[in-house]
UniProtKB/TrEMBL annotation:
Name of protein: Beta-D-glucoside glucohydrolase
InterPro entries the record matches: Cellulose_deg_GH3, Fn3-like, GH, Glyco_hydro_3_AS, Glyco_hydro_3_C, Glyco_hydro_3_C_sf, Glyco_hydro_3_N, Glyco_hydro_3_N_sf
Pfam families linked to this entry: Fn3-like, Glyco_hydro_3, Glyco_hydro_3_C
PANTHER family for this protein: BETA-GLUCOSIDASE
Domain Fibronectin type III-like: 585-655
Keywords associated with the record: Carbohydrate metabolism, Glycosidase, Hydrolase
This protein's record includes keyword Cell membrane: no
GO molecular function list: beta-glucosidase activity
Family stated for the protein in its record: Belongs to the glycosyl hydrolase 3 family.
GO BP annotation list: carbohydrate metabolic process
Amino acid sequence: MHQQIEKWLIELTVSEKCALLSGSGFWHSQGIERLGIPKIMLTDGPHGLRKQGDKEDHLGQNESVPATCFPSEAGLAASWSRDLAYLQGRSIGVECRAEDVAVILGPGLNIKRSPLCGRNFEYMSEDPYLSSHLGAAYIEGAQSVGVGTSPKHFACNNQETKRLTIDAKVDKRTLHEIYLSSFETAVKEANPFTVMCAYNQVNGEYGAENQYLLNDILRRQWQWDGVVVTDWGATNDRVKGLLASMDLEMPSSNGVNDAKVEAALQSDPELCEALDNSVRRLLKLVLRTTQNLPEVEGFDAARHHQLARKIALESMVLLKNDEAILPLDAGRESVALFGAFAEQPRYQGGGSSHTNPTYVSRLVDVMAERCPDLRYEVGFGIYDDELNADNLAQAVALAKVKDKVVICAGLPERYETEGIDRTHLNLPAAQLKFIEEMAKVNPNIAVVLNNGAPVEMPFVGQVKGILEAYLPGQAGAEAIADILLGDVSPSGKLAETFPLRLEHNPSYEYFPGEGYQVSYNEGVFVGYRFYQTKQLPILFPFGHGLTYSRFAYSNIQVSDTKITDQQSLTVTLDITNTGSVAAKEVVQLYISDSQSEVSRPDIELKGFDKVSLGAGETQSVSFTLDKRSFAFYDAALDDWRVQSGEFVVKVGASSQDIRLQACVEVNSTVALPFVVHSNSTFGELRSHPATKEYATELLEYFIEHSGIDFNLGDNDENFAETVISFFPIKNMVLFCKEAFSEAQLAVALDKLTLMVANYNNLEK
Ligand code: BGC
């Protein structure tokens, strides 16, 4: 491959090189016929293939070839299953191979900073660990059949409002811990063939020319050498982009940008080198996706429909199930089904991810087939703002005589779609009213929700059951029926918090920004990191999801109680299905830093595993933790750092249902630079072994000569000790007057500095 690339590089003219780095048309890269360099097709993604014919657009308006519509990523992430993410990636890859598509534009790995983001249904989670690990599995799946992926949109594309121009202002620690981490594992471990950069700016530079994001992070820190492709139309300054190692501009700029690059090349050797490197990467992508491809089976639509159903089954989250209202006992109970979603399923989101499914199942049909006695009435329409009196009357009459009522509610597509953000978390008023009216006549209500992101639920106390089915893809109705009828125990867990109220969301006051800027002032406190730390009441917590069984957690063991940040820690525990049906459980591992010098979230997810257990069965689960599991991003050091001390390993069934915990002491091996200056405090100087003794002497001198009585009133000794520790050494001059001069301070500072240097030399 290397030889072929270098040969082409010699043969290509400068104009051809420039042309190669811009698309040909909407979905293809440029080919160079005379050299036999083929064009390749890159197309959406992420939850199914959207390959268009001659009518092309990036907003999902025009038809595309029939393809399987899998659950959208919000649901896929709720499965917490690496296996299913792999399977989904692979299946889409197989369809791409059948359609000659080289790169699928996904997965979407932006963090759900606000539940209002119109594209949250296309993203995985509010947690970067979960998002990145599932993203890695998806990428591995697709690439196992020779199809490239494009995790997107790198980075900080966390809203649709002004997404083409907005400047996300994010501090370095937050950027690394939350927004970059969401891509990091996926990029480092699964090595996607491409990464799609975002439209927006991050800290003043557009995604398509962001030196820090592309050169420093992707290329240098993460050592990734794939192709960076723009989001469709995200190019700002093509020359700057090339210098930032942004390789492929999509779609074509019709030669406009190629000409600009060619002109700039004359005077810029750095640009010439950047051009060659980008061409090398592009040619590698072409070869990777066109030569020596692995054998794959053909696309079997019926089989993929069943795979979509399998994934959908695990992506649904049983949020509430009082008095075991679910599963329905179809043989013995009479059931009424309401809501137009049962007839017109909302199974995918709007915009560029919009697929043309091979088949779509409807809950009315599936349920009619499986429970012939079930009665359906529409009750309300998907787009209704008000209830129709006749429909309501009919529904009330029916609900009164049935044992149980199932209501299919959700968000119409216009509420959540690419291009705009939501402004509230409400379901349409007609639906809320309908649920309220039903609750007056029947106490046994289960609500099935179809939506891509959290909604507020004023009805939570009026109903016994809530199944969050998300946007479950074309086989969603079959999966909903499997769960409603108890054929399969639900096993999804929320990959995002459902807040009680929108106003509780940490980004609420700063979303979607002002003018052309959005400030991420909430810092690392995103999603549960915020709610949990603030101990705010929420509707349903991150990681929450019920099953038709029960699980007992026991016997937690840690391989060591004291490690350094260079060592790993193994955590094992047993999990037992104590219920009477086979079920799956998502075991979640969180880390708490007991005491930290920086403000850290109460808990952070650092491991998860999905286990399948028959009734009465026990299985051992094990996790390996390493430095990153305990570290925070130290902006001053510009690296991950563990602060030495005690950490609590918490294992549970959700972020708010911790069942086991164990402690471990982790010691850092990083020697932080200790610089002495006139603002160094007595406290700092006395806590460093090199300066401790001399600083204590100085302190005693200070107390004696300053005349300040630190033992104020009836405060205890610690009080005086603490107050003194905050005094900077320069205050000796001010307070000791003639007893300590500027010159003496300079001597003391030199002496302290020397002590630290000697100490460091000895330590080496
Ligand atoms: C979206 C991308 C998508 C591209 C091509 C853009 O508007 O942001 O996610 O892959 O269009 O359709």
